[in-house]
Specification:
- The structure holds two protein chains of two kinds.
- By secondary structure, chain A is an all-alpha fold.
- Helices cover 81% and strands 0% of the residues of chain A.
- In chain A, helix 5 packs across helix 8.
- At the A-B interface, helix 1, helix 2, helix 3, helix 4 and helix 5 of A face helix 1, helix 3, helix 5 and helix 6 of B.
Chain lengths: 172, 343
């Protein structure tokens, strides 16, 4: 029988962070993480635990998104717009809020598979685990990550530059 | 060696190459300025992307709001010492505190959830998950649920409840203190708190033609009936995996179990709602909703014995999850008994 308690202790933090980065909503992330562990309860044993957990979490996100994709996109868009215009809660400085918004945009601009692979890598999954979780060939993970990283950085820098230009124009 | 492609460079930086490949890359980089530059650029991308992603860690809560309205109930108090959560009929419920006295339970598990009376004041985080956790065993489920409860106890979570309401899988039910009565949680508390405490004392073995019936006593005073149908089969029956049984099947139940069911339908104490739906594959499958009435019916799980191929049934006034746990114990003890008999 799967020792879900141990799984939880070991992987919950990473799973929640992965999901938070993917979804942009911490509450949602926690729910999906919880649902993932609930599903682990059904398994008599899991061979590659981390890969399995991340795969299930990823599929849950996909399934849920597919269910209601238009409404969700609309809502996410509204939320994003609001976030850009509204000042963040006290703890976050304006600077950090702007960085978060740009990061959000840059990450969302990636292809889904590239994005997921990169987020998994950031949680320490090795190439085999990523390949298993995303059903990729292990040989393609390197290319996927290289592309994801390059595009993320270039998108972000583009947004950064755009913002600086706007600020310069405003100042002048 | 030819110039390195980006994928190989990143694989190398991520330590994903085997030692031979890695050695070759290293050797090449040492003598090839172009590739050395490419490696430097790649390192920059690796570091920068990592940094950018950390900016996402401060994500707000409740960004994507729920569509369905939230129903609020009165505060539920659960005794801290006893098991906080009962997972029954596949629902995982975590109660929580956080400034909001909101609580919410999923349908099927709500039926099996009772507070220990009198209840002490532990409010725990409340979120709902798919009602289909299915039976992996009470202790583990309760423990993991408790951990979730404890870990998220500090957080204010109205939006989680919103999301949970939005999730198609859960039917939110407003519960009052009266809906919770002691014995079921006590059951689970006993089972959860002391793994292995589930003693299997044989009470009787009534003789029935074509069946081997064993009645086990299960604390705190219930019994379950194990029925083994001894039927010669030409085609071996399909093996039914754990957690796939639908409860409430009276057809094929032993006489005693049917009598129990008849009694149970008249019983009045709060507890399990009728049938447990079999788990569906997708997250979105909704659980059955009936909330009215608090009968505690007899449930039956059915499976095929791996060794003999006989149909096995276990009936009792337990949740499916508990029955599965008892089944495990029975199988374990039978296997242990069989091993002892071998020379």
């Amino acid at each position: 029988m799967t020792d879900v308690e141990r799984l939880f202790r070991t992987y919950n933090a990473a799973l929640v962070r992965y999901l938070t980065r993917r979804l942009g909503d911490r509450d949602w992330a926690e729910e999906v993480a919880q649902e993932t562990f609930v599903r682990a309860l059904r398994q008599t044993s899991i061979e590659n635990e981390r890969a399995w957990l991340f795969a299930v979490a990823t599929n849950l996100v996909r399934d849920e998104a597919r269910k209601d994709i238009r409404r969700r996109k609309h809502l996410a868009l509204l939320a994003e717009q609001e976030r850009d215009t509204v000042v963040e809660p006290e703890e976050t400085t304006l600077e950090r809020a702007q960085e978060a918004a740009m990061a959000r945009k840059a990450v969302d601009a990636l292809a889904e598979r590239d994005r997921l692979a990169l987020l998994m890598r950031e949680e320490g999954l090795d190439y085999n685990e990523i390949a298993e979780a995303l059903q990729l060939s292990p040989g393609s993970v390197g290319t996927t990550l290289s592309r994801a990283r390059r595009r993320l950085v270039e998108s972000y820098e583009g947004l950064q530059k755009g913002r600086e230009e706007r600020e310069n124009n405003a100042a002048s | 060696m030819q110039h390195l492609d980006e994928g190989t460079i990143h694989s190398w930086l991520d330590n994903a190459l085997n030692p031979d490949e890695a050695a070759r890359v290293e050797a090449h980089v040492a003598e090839c300025p172009e590739c050395a530059a490419a490696v430097a650029e790649a390192r920059g991308f690796v570091a920068a992307s990592s940094r950018i992603l950390t900016a996402l860690d401060d994500a707000p809560r409740g960004v994507v709001p729920a569509a369905a309205p939230i129903r609020r109930g009165s505060r539920a108090m659960l005794r801290a010492a006893a098991t906080v959560l009962v997972v029954a009929a596949g629902s995982l419920v975590v109660f929580r505190n956080g400034g909001r006295e909101t609580q919410r339970v999923t349908n099927a598990s709500l039926s099996a959830m009772k507070t220990v009376a009198p209840v002490a004041s532990m409010n725990v985080d409340s979120t709902t998950a798919t009602p289909e956790a299915a039976a992996a065993g009470i202790p583990t489920e309760a423990n993991s649920s408790r951990r979730t409860a404890i870990s998220s106890q500090q957080r204010n979570n109205a939006s989680v409840e919103k999301r949970a309401a939005k999730t198609a899988t859960a039917d939110a039910v407003t519960a009052t203190d009266q809906a919770f009565t002691p014995s079921r949680i006590a059951d689970a508390a006993v089972m959860a708190a002391v793994p292995g405490a589930l003693s299997l004392k044989v009470v009787e073995t009534p003789r029935r033609p074509g069946e081997t019936v064993t009645v086990y006593e299960v604390p705190p005073g219930d019994t379950v009936t194990l029925t083994e149908l001894i039927v010669a089969r030409e085609n071996p029956p399909a093996v039914v995996p754990l957690g796939r049984q639908s409860a409430g099947q009276t057809a094929g139940m032993s006489t005693k179990a049917r009598a129990d069911a008849a009694v149970a339908s008249g019983s009045g104490y709060s507890g399990a709602v009728g049938s447990v739906t079999a788990p569906a594959p997708a997250v979105s499958a909704p659980a059955s909703a009936p909330q009215a009435g608090f009968a505690n019916p007899v449930r039956t799980i059915k499976w095929t014995d791996g060794t003999t191929g006989n149909t096995m049934m276990l009936s009792g006034r337990k949740s499916e999850a508990q029955l599965q746990e008892i089944r495990r114990r029975i199988e374990h003890e039978r296997a242990a008994g069989a091993a002892r008999k071998k020379p």
